[in-house]
Specification:
The complex is a heterotrimer of chains A (about 300), B (about 350) and C (about 260).
Chain A lengths: L1 H37 L25 H8 L1 H34 L2 H12 L6 H12 L4 H12 L11 H24 L4 H9 L4 H29 L3 H6 L7 H9 L5 H35 L1
Chain B lengths: L1 H17 L7 E7 L5 H11 L2 E7 L2 H9 L7 E2 L3 H9 L33 E14 H7 L7 H4 L1 H4 L6 E3 L3 H11 L9 H14 L5 E2 L4 H7 L4 E5 H13 L6 E4 L5 E10 L6 H11 L2 H11 L14 H4 L8 H4 L2 E2 L6 H16 L2
Parallel strand pairs in B: 1-2, 1-3, 5-6, 5-7, 9-10
Antiparallel strand pairs in B: 3-9, 4-7, 4-8, 4-9
Helix pairs in contact in B: 8-9, 9-16, 10-11
Chain C lengths: L5 H24 L16 H8 L1 H34 L4 H11 L2 H14 L6 H24 L5 H8 L4 H29 L3 H6 L7 H7 L7 H24 L1 H4 L6
The chains are: A mainly alpha (about 300), B alpha/beta (about 350), C mainly alpha (about 260).
């Protein structure tokens, strides 16, 4: 039985991990490597990349773009700002998504799928149209702005623009990423055993205790999954600052887009992208490591 | 079971959808959206007994990036002059067979034989626009601000009165050009010292601007949230039409700065790997006919380099200086030239610093 | 049945309101008698009429739906496999390959996929777009499925194996029903990502391929008219209908309350 089990497991491992691995190697890793190589090439004079072998027959490879990244501090500055925005977005999404996911998970079974669909339904309309809807909501003459500025006026403060500001960017970032926090949280919360919580209540634990000591630790995998699926994409976003941002709201995603478009400096765009990807993967790795320790701790408790 | 049936159905549909359709002759036009009147397309399809398949881009750079990465399948492209320059130099275009486009004689000679394409070997002008000021006439009159100088968006003494109600284009090329003109230099000036001065002027004005915006500023102008913009003449023309349609009391007018402005001429070119260069040439010749050319101008208020088209264009449009600049203004309008790699990098560094600064 | 705390209801309803206020504006403005999406002028059905006659926009919507259904189907299958593999086995390459497409800026992926397809002389079209979408959707599905599996009781699966079930049967009859909510959540995410994607689609689309986001984004500089609101509203309703119908037709597949 043991021998069959071992080779059976090996084969099962390749059968299960093989197809996605193969697909990603072909349609992700190979193209990505092309661009990683591009980071050490020179930009084409009129766009694109310069030929790999220049006129004198030598390989045209250099690390100019990497040097630029580390010597011109403005890029790192922008990256830090983007990380900050992404963090705020993730925390806000978590705060909004947790009650929502809990409600759906606790609903009667026949309602759950519908409630879940209702969460994601708005996101099947076009992105741009939803952003434009936010421009209407946040416009200077709309109800919300007038209310906020009215309150501020009471305190003697001047009017604050809601649109074309960091507030608008963050609100939309949260809005756009919310389902990606709700869905993983729901998938995890759904399997929590209500009996465990009932037993705890019977033993005298109050609502906060039940949440903090039982529900939250058990939901951590969902929290980490949702956070990864919000934080990482939010790091690279550019469309929202482009449309709703103020003059100061430039994020690393905008800079990367600029390198590929207006500046036509693909090598530098590639370097910025690599740095962004590596940073995102590192942060995800650290979070996962912390999560594993936390889960082990919770298991011991 | 149901999943498998569903999957099979989807794959079958996908196979059908991607099977190339050989039935009709097709001309693939890669163009800006809303940059050709639907009637014109229909008329051409009738004339050539072919189908015009349109795909769109919203920025020259998107077109350039896609072609630089090797995309094929397009016949006719409509890039702006500096992009034409990049495409020609990059060997991406097919030379035009002049014998197939006799209507080229209709084009105003002032727009032919440019430094970008001497002898028009690869391109013919299609439509034009200028990058100017757009403003809410009521508000500007109320605040007593001038509307014929770049100073109104760069000089703090004017900006104070419109703080938070001004947007500028989110384009390094356009904004630097405007700043250079404001400082009295040429829009194509490449002296790094002058660029530093322009960057300083932009940073000084930035705290007063509401946003760098290339897309939704028309809307905000029309609604009255924004009172002054740095924008394209077509867009500003459209904003006024929208404002009138919405019953507003103010007008959105075009302000041509006396220091001069950027002129953007869009051209028709043929991609080097065009599947149907014959249809492409027929299309270009068709669009050089005055009547067809005029339809776009009447639709969106774009400038028109075609002399034969003038008689078909609505008279109120021919009077707008931003659309049909008079001789004295023409001298001050400049088409942007493409930059070298080193220049592009320097400009990007300055632009990033501007955007990241407080 | 314990009484659910009222603050939970309030917070959840607030979240739903946050999600739906912009959507209500989108739908309401599709009836707005003004070219701009900026303020209410009056009621009209014109935009829906224009949409019915707008072959280009309808074709683009159809393309988007087709690509989204295909891409979400394939990426859900591959992503579920990846999620299970990540949970069960110690793998070194797959975790990175699954997370990296989420982290990599879309414009880099788009340009690199275009170069890749050109190198292979692969004709661009709907298929190239679908292939690209699948690549970035797999990761989302895998992460959700893995989160669902985390901490899950493997003893049920082991028990099935001990009773003589092959790994395939154990998966299909034991594991899969248990992870189904995760799979469904992942599929919904993949569909959403695909139907709204712009950047990667722009670069991998062929000379005749127009999807709805491509069409709408190209309108960004002129004006995104309420016709777009109309097509968005209809697309949402159509998708909802298709999914409800699919769920009714395969009740055993999607229901998350399956008894094992």
């Amino acid at each position: 039985m043991a021998a069959k089990g071992v080779s059976g497991t090996r084969m099962a491992k390749w059968l299960v991990s093989g197809p996605p691995l193969l697909y990603l190697l072909v349609f992700f890793a190979a193209p990505a490597l092309i661009m990683v190589l591009a980071s050490v090439r020179s930009p084409g004079e009129f766009g694109g990349l310069a030929p790999l072998v220049d006129e004198s027959g030598r390989l045209d490879l250099n690390t100019e773009s990497y040097v630029r990244l580390f010597t011109e501090s403005v890029y790192l500055q922008v990256f830090v700002k983007s990380a900050w925005y992404a963090l705020l977005t993730t925390l806000a999404c978590l705060a909004l998504a947790y009650p929502l996911a809990t409600l759906i998970a606790k609903s009667p079974k026949k309602h759950r799928d519908l409630l879940l669909l209702l969460v994601i339904l708005p996101f099947w309309s076009n992105f741009l149209i939803r952003i434009y809807a936010w421009m209407i909501i946040l416009g200077p003459n709309a109800a919300l702005a007038r209310m906020v500025n009215g309150v501020l006026a009471w305190f003697g403060a001047g009017p604050v623009p809601l649109l074309f500001s960091a507030f608008a960017v963050l609100t939309c970032l949260v809005y756009v990423h919310l389902p990606f926090m709700v869905l993983p949280l729901y998938a995890n919360l759904e399997k929590h055993d209500q009996a465990l919580l009932d037993a705890a209540q019977d033993l005298g634990a109050n609502a906060w205790h039940r949440f903090w000591r039982i529900t939250f630790p058990l939901s951590l995998p969902g929290v980490y999954a949702g956070s990864a699926l919000v934080f990482i994409p939010a790091l690279g976003i550019f469309a929202i600052p482009d449309i709703l941002g103020g003059p100061d709201d430039t994020l690393i995603g905008n800079l990367i887009k600029q390198q590929f478009l207006e500046t036509r400096d693909w090598p530098f765009g590639s370097v910025l992208s690599i740095m962004l990807t590596v940073a995102a993967l590192l942060l995800a790795g650290i979070a996962a490591w912390v999560g594993r320790r936390g889960a082990a701790g919770a298991a011991r408790a | 079971m149901n999943v498998r049936a569903l999957a099979a159905a989807v794959l079958a549909i996908a196979a059908f959808a991607t099977a190339p359709v050989y039935a009709k002759d097709q001309l693939h036009l890669y163009n800006w959206n809303n940059y050709i009147a639907p009637e014109t397309i229909k008329r051409f399809e009738g004339v050539c007994q072919c189908e015009v398949v349109q795909t769109y881009y919203s920025d020259n750079e998107e077109l350039l990036a896609k072609l630089a990465a090797g995309a094929k399948g397009y016949d006719v492209l409509v890039p702006t002059s500096n992009a034409v320059q990049a495409l020609i130099r990059g060997g991406q275009l097919k030379p035009l067979d002049k014998t197939a486009i006799p209507n080229i004689k209709n084009v105003n000679p002032a727009y032919l034989n440019t430094p970008f394409d001497p002898g028009n070997q690869y391109s013919v002008p299609y439509a034009m626009s200028t990058t100017i000021l757009g403003y809410n006439d009521e508000k500007m009159k109320e605040l007593g601000l001038p509307t014929d100088t770049w100073a109104v968006i760069f000089d703090p003494k004017y900006l104070e009165k419109v703080k938070g109600r001004v947007t500028v284009l989110d384009s390094a090329n356009e904004l630097f050009a405007a700043a250079l003109k404001y400082l009295g230099y040429s829009a194509n000036d490449v002296d790094p010292k002058h660029w530093d001065e322009a960057a300083a002027a932009i940073r000084k004005a930035k705290p007063y601007w509401a946003a760098f915006n290339a897309s939704s500023y028309i809307k905000e102008l029309t609604v009255g949230n924004i009172w002054l913009v740095h924008g394209y003449s077509n867009d500003i023309f459209q904003a006024n039409l929208d404002a009138q349609a919405a019953g507003r009391k103010f007008h959105i007018l075009q302000g041509v700065p006396k220091e001069g402005a950027v002129l953007a001429v869009d051209n028709m070119v043929i991609h080097k790997a065009a599947p149907r260069p014959d249809l492409a040439l027929r299309f270009i010749n068709f669009m050089l006919d005055g009547r067809n050319s005029a339809e776009l101008t009447n639709l969106i208020g774009s400038g028109n380099p075609n002399l034969d088209a003038m008689k078909y264009i609505k008279p109120e449009l021919t009077k707008l200086p931003a659309v049909f600049p008079p001789k004295d203004l023409q001298a001050k309008l400049e088409q942007l030239k493409d930059l070298t790699v080193t220049q592009r990098r320097l400009r990007n560094k300055l632009w990033t610093e501007i955007k990241a600064s407080k | 049945m314990r009484r659910r705390s009222s603050w939970l209801w309030v917070a959840a309803l607030a979240a739903y309101a946050f999600l739906y206020v912009p959507l209500i504006i989108v739908v309401v403005y599709s009836f707005n008698d003004s070219r701009l999406n900026a303020e209410w002028v009056g009621f009209t059905l014109d935009w829906y009429r224009k949409l019915a006659a707008n072959d280009d926009m309808l074709a683009a919507a159809g393309n988007s739906l087709l690509i989204a259904f295909t891409a979400s189907l394939v990426s859900t299958v591959l992503g579920t496999m990846a999620g299970v593999a990540l949970h069960r086995y110690r793998l070194r390459l797959l975790p990175i390959l699954v997370l990296a497409p989420i982290a990599i800026p879309e414009i880099l992926m788009g340009v690199s996929l275009l170069i890749f397809f050109v190198l292979l002389n692969f004709t661009l079209g709907l298929v190239s777009v679908a292939l690209a979408h699948i690549a970035f959707c797999i990761g989302f599905v895998a992460i959700v499925v893995r989160a669902r599996l985390a901490g899950m009781d493997e003893s049920l699966t082991e028990a099935a194996r001990d009773c003589g079930a092959t790994p395939a049967r154990a998966f299909r009859h034991v594991t899969l029903p248990l992870i189904m909510p995760g799979v469904v959540a992942g599929a919904l995410m993949a569909f959403t990502l695909s139907i709204d994607d712009f950047v990667i689609t722009f670069f991998t689309a062929g000379a005749g391929t127009v999807t709805l986001p491509l069409l709408i984004y190209s309108m960004i500089k002129i004006s995104v008219t309420p016709e777009v609101n109309a097509v968005s509203t209809l697309l949402m309703l159509l998708t909802l209908l298709l999914i409800v119908v699919a769920a009714k037709l395969s009740p055993t597949l999607l229901r998350s309350d399956r008894e094992t």
